[in-house]
């Protein structure tokens, strides 16, 4: 799968991402602690956030906390975690190993009575010495109330892109967390 090295937070963090992403900061204001990218041909979004480290010490509990927090922020009517796993960083750099989560949130959008089903793929990198949780979320609308549905091959491609992004993410400059 072709990709490009994406420079995040002024190059302090890099990751391999699809070539055609749109930088959401070009169309709306994005907080300094976030990078947001949109897929031009679908409703998929990628959000990379620098957050204060949350209380659970266990990485799987922490990634689930962030997933639940996202569900709360989205006013999700339901949420379900499908899987979680730890992917060790075996590259030899200082980037922490990543804990990934796959789940589904059902979110009512635009005051619709029927909720959209959104697949959330989340990656958590805990920078313990800086008190930071770096969280990557791919938000993939699978079924929408307006009749939109993602084909299985599109979902598989998005999952592959998430895996490449999560495994390739590298913290180049830890001072970004100062």
TrEMBL record:
<keyword id="KW-0813">Transport</keyword>
<comment type="similarity">
    <text>Belongs to the MOG1 family.</text>
</comment>
<dbReference type="GO" id="GO:0031267">
    <property type="term" value="F:small GTPase binding"/>
</dbReference>
<keyword id="KW-0653">Protein transport</keyword>
<protein>
    <recommendedName>
        <fullName>Mog1p/PsbP-like protein</fullName>
    </recommendedName>
</protein>
<dbReference type="InterPro" id="IPR007681">
    <property type="entry name" value="Mog1"/>
</dbReference>
<dbReference type="GO" id="GO:0005634">
    <property type="term" value="C:nucleus"/>
</dbReference>
<dbReference type="InterPro" id="IPR016123">
    <property type="entry name" value="Mog1/PsbP_a/b/a-sand"/>
</dbReference>
<dbReference type="GO" id="GO:0006606">
    <property type="term" value="P:protein import into nucleus"/>
</dbReference>
<dbReference type="Pfam" id="PF04603">
    <property type="entry name" value="Mog1"/>
</dbReference>
<dbReference type="GO" id="GO:0005085">
    <property type="term" value="F:guanyl-nucleotide exchange factor activity"/>
</dbReference>
């Amino acid at each position: 799968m072709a990709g490009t090295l994406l420079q995040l937070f002024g190059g302090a963090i890099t990751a391999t991402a699809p070539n055609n992403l749109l930088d959401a900061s070009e169309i709306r204001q994005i907080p300094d602690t976030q990078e947001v990218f949109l897929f031009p041909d679908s409703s998929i979004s990628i959000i990379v956030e620098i957050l204060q480290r949350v209380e659970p010490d266990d990485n799987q509990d922490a990634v689930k906390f962030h997933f639940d927090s996202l569900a709360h922020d989205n006013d999700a009517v339901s949420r379900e975690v499908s899987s979680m796993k730890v992917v060790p960083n075996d590259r030899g750099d200082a980037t922490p190993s990543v804990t990934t989560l796959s789940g589904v949130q059902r979110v009512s959008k635009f005051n619709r009575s029927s909720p959209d089903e959104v697949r959330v793929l989340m990656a958590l990198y805990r920078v313990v010495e800086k008190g930071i949780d770096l969280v990557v979320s791919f938000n993939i609308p699978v079924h929408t109330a307006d009749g939109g549905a993602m084909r299985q091959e599109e979902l598989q491609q998005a999952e592959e892109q998430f895996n490449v992004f999560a495994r390739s993410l590298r913290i180049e400059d830890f001072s970004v967390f100062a």
